[in-house]
Design a protein that fits this description.
By secondary structure, the protein is of the alpha/beta class. The chain is built from 14 helices and eleven strands. The strands form two sheets. It has an eight-stranded parallel barrel, surrounded by seven helices. It has a two-stranded antiparallel ribbon with strand order 1-2. Strand 6, helix 4 and strand 7 form a beta-alpha-beta unit. It is globular. The protein starts with a strand and ends in a 9-residue tail after the last helix.
């Protein structure tokens, strides 16, 4: 069970996927407090990072040095990717992840993310540039291929491993599927047969049952959880307990649930500032209220309130935990 990425020991490989606008430092810290093998930062565009676009460096700088954190970078040219990797390493990063899986049009339109799967020779040059630039473990996250007619993840993963990548994460969909349909865990098995470095399965893993099925289907060494952790930051620890017999997390209910949510909310206010933090927090508060079955009218008041103090007052009723259950 488990493996190492450089000095980083991944004893129970249940990992938090990078999600734009979601896996910021406050959320990664909360997930880590329950237990996680590795948490991955939001994707950082190498060009914006190097030109110090406001808000970009902060995504990596705050928390890069935390032991179980990987910093994900993306780009379309080798030189900026290498320079971004060096800067992230200088900030104290322990692991660097290369994004070749993001399906968003604004990313693929600039020939970054999963668009690179259409030009594997160029993708390999980016990988080689990052690996050569730093002494840190470098990992790769990608998809099965660009579309159903170009499933090239096995070949790209093999070439990446030969170039020095130490772990590969595969989302079991093509880029053109975006998040539609079901992740094809069985299709990931071809990647398992192509590489002998750690392989992580990603896509539609929302609990212990789906995690076990993903491992059986893919032959992977671990799983990565994304949307399944929304509103349930203990989910990774819960899956880890089922898969690897690690301690089960104490899933908060009642006043403990309110205390967890309010602490997360206040951490976002501190991280972003009150005005922006209040806006960024709304998606998380919405997921928490989904879990608590908050009445629609009260939910609307919480999500439109601009005064953080009043939000905290409203949350006490919104998260009345007689109706909230762990799931």
């Amino acid at each position: 069970m488990g493996f190492s990425l450089g000095k980083q020991r991944i004893s129970a490989p249940v990992m938090l996927a990078p999600l734009a606008g979601i896996t910021d430092l406050p959320f990664r810290n909360l997930v880590s407090s329950f237990g996680a093998g590795l948490v991955v930062s939001e994707m950082i565009a190498s060009g914006e990072f190097l030109t110090a676009r406001p808000g970009t460096r902060e995504k990596a700088e705050l928390g890069a040095q935390i032991e179980n954190t990987s910093v994900q970078i993306a780009g379309r040219e080798p030189e900026p990717m290498a320079e971004a990797a060096k800067m992230v390493a200088d900030m104290g990063a322990r692991v660097i992840d290369i994004n070749m899986g993001c399906p968003a049009k604004k990313v693929t339109g600039g020939w970054s993310g999963s668009a690179l799967m259409q030009v594997p020779d160029h993708a390999l040059r980016l990988i080689e540039a990052v690996v050569d630039a730093v002494d840190l473990p470098v990992t790769l996250k990608t998809r099965l291929g660009w579309d159903g007619a170009s499933i090239n993840a096995p070949d790209l993963a093999k070439r990446a491993a030969n170039a020095g990548v130490q772990m590969v994460v595969i989302h079991g969909r093509t880029r053109c599927q975006f998040y539609k349909g079901r992740a094809d865990w069985q299709a990931i098995r071809a990647v398992r047969e192509a590489i002998d470095i750690p392989l992580i399965a990603n896509g539609d893993i929302v609990g212990a049952g789906s995690a076990k099925a993903a491992l059986r289907g893919s032959g992977a060494d671990g799983v990565m959880v994304g949307r399944g952790a929304q509103g349930a930051p203990w989910k990774l620890a819960e899956i880890s307990a089922a898969l690897y017999d690690t301690p089960r997390p104490n899933i908060p209910l009642g006043i403990e649930f309110y205390n967890m949510v309010s602490s997360h909310y206040e951490a976002m206010l501190s991280f972003y500032g009150e005005a922006l933090g209040n806006r960024v927090a709304r998606k998380h508060l919405g997921w928490y209220m989904d879990r608590a079955a908050t009445p629609r009218a009260l939910r609307g008041r919480v999500l439109t309130e601009k005064d953080p103090k009043q939000v905290l007052v409203l949350l006490r009723d919104a998260l009345a935990m007689d109706q909230a259950v762990a799931a």
